[in-house]
Design brief:
By secondary structure, the protein is of the alpha/beta class. It has 13 helices and 13 strands. Helices cover 39% and strands 20% of the residues. The strands form three sheets. Strands 6-5-4-7-8 form a five-stranded mixed beta sheet, with helices on both faces. The chain has a five-stranded mixed beta sheet with strand order 11-10-9-12-13, sandwiched between helices. A three-stranded antiparallel beta sheet has the order 1-3-2. α5 links the parallel β7 and β8.
């Protein structure tokens, strides 16, 4: 990472490898104390201390002081001067966009509405303009972005960069979104599903960081899940892992957008829930349903609770197959809180195999509507190279 290709096995090669381990760990986790860095890299505290001093002097790392367990500790992160990354989340109805520095601190953000049935070409053009305006407001230009991460509401095939299943995101299918956006902005772009990136944010930045395996269940206008093992995504061969919204609940049920019948989304996603109310009740958007539930409207609470039960049954099957330590619930419908999650727990208790340690814990996601965007930022940071050229530029 830092150095000029020293011969393998030499002392300088070992130092370079150790520096790489420190930087990669900070890219992955954001901020760590020196003791935590030693644990995550497997290096001795003395080695970590020396590397931190060296890279702090070079401008690659930044240190500050914190208190852990009543003791003063040195907190380490990548230096802000390393550069900027961007994260974008195209949900069904909104685009969330944020720019962050290497410490993951957000320096600019915006939310814009999306038209129903939006297409990739128009929205990538708009994203390009928004990125340019936001960077300009920070006194920079697009070339200052080291990488861009994008979350989409559909599974992405890691081999092609395209939506992996027809029918799930019309207007975006058959397009390498990363290559298309990269051609517009001239910067590296990386794309994954919104559930995967919501799960990645939880695994990298929250109390869920130490969990060995987890499932991020995203519930809103669509339903999907991201599977995390030891802090990394498990995508499967074609990126379809975790698509529980298309688990069959009733094989004689209504036809889903994926062309199958009786999928979970037909019973628990926002369009299905809103369709249960007559127009006179004014349930036009998911926010209307959530507001009614908060106001104590029993019909709204019952619809959300029934959705939680259906989701819990599908999650139980996922638990029997994947055996996660924790279930994290995010997405717009997760704002209903225990009205949604309590029935999920009850369904899990009835339908999942119980291990000696009990069933997985079900908890609310940490970042609300910004979780997937933060995951996109984490994805971008994973692909940022901090090498000798950066050190030379910053020194």
């Amino acid at each position: 990472m830092v150095g000029r290709n020293p011969p393998p096995g030499s002392q300088s090669s070992l130092r370079e490898a150790n520096r790489t381990r420190v930087v990669e760990s900070l890219k992955r986790h954001g901020r760590l104390t020196q003791i935590e860095l030693a644990g995550s890299t497997g290096l001795s505290p003395a080695t970590v201390s020396n590397i931190v001093k060296e890279l702090t002097s070079a401008g690659v790392l930044h240190t500050s002081f914190t208190s852990r367990s009543g003791r003063r500790a040195t907190l380490v992160s990548l230096a802000r001067r390393v550069g900027l990354v961007a994260g974008a989340h195209f949900s069904t109805r909104q685009l969330h966009l944020a720019i962050a520095d290497a410490t993951r601190a957000t320096v600019a953000e915006t939310v814009v509405p999306l038209a129903p049935g939006h297409r990739h070409d128009a929205e990538l053009d708009r994203l390009t303009l928004l990125l340019g305006d936001m960077i300009e407001s920070l006194g920079g230009q697009l070339t200052d972005l080291l990488a861009i991460g994008v979350a989409l509401p559909a599974p992405i095939d890691p081999r092609t960069g395209m939506v992996s299943t027809p029918g799930l995101l019309p207007g975006w299918e058959g397009v390498d979104v990363a290559a298309s956006l990269s051609a517009r902005v001239g910067r590296p772009v990386f794309v994954d599903s919104e559930a995967n990136l919501g799960g990645l944010a939880e695994a990298r930045e929250t109390a869920n960081r130490g969990v060995s395996s987890s499932v991020f269940v995203r519930v809103g206008h669509t339903i999907s899940a991201g599977l995390i093992v030891d802090g990394d995504l498990f995508r499967g061969v074609s990126g379809k892992t975790g698509q529980i919204g298309h688990v069959t609940i009733d094989e004689n049920g209504p036809v889903c957008r994926c062309s199958n019948r009786g999928c979970l989304e037909m019973y628990a996603a926002a369009p299905a829930l809103l369709a249960l109310f007559p127009e006179s009740e004014g349930m036009q958007r998911l926010t209307d349903l959530l507001a009614a539930s908060d106001a104590g409207v029993s019909s709204a609470q019952r619809v959300i609770a029934d959705a939680g039960r259906h989701i819990g049954i599908a999650v139980a099957s996922l638990c029997n197959l994947f055996d996660p330590e924790r279930i994290i619930v995010g997405g717009e419908l997760a704002q209903a809180g225990e009205i949604l999650m309590a029935p999920m727990r009850h369904a899990l208790e009835r339908s999942a195999l119980v291990a000696a340690g009990g069933l997985p814990e079900i908890v609310a996601a940490s970042f609300g509507e910004w979780g997937e965007t933060r995951g996109a930022i984490a994805l971008a940071l994973d692909h940022v190279s901090v090498d000798a050229d950066v050190v030379t530029r910053l020194a």
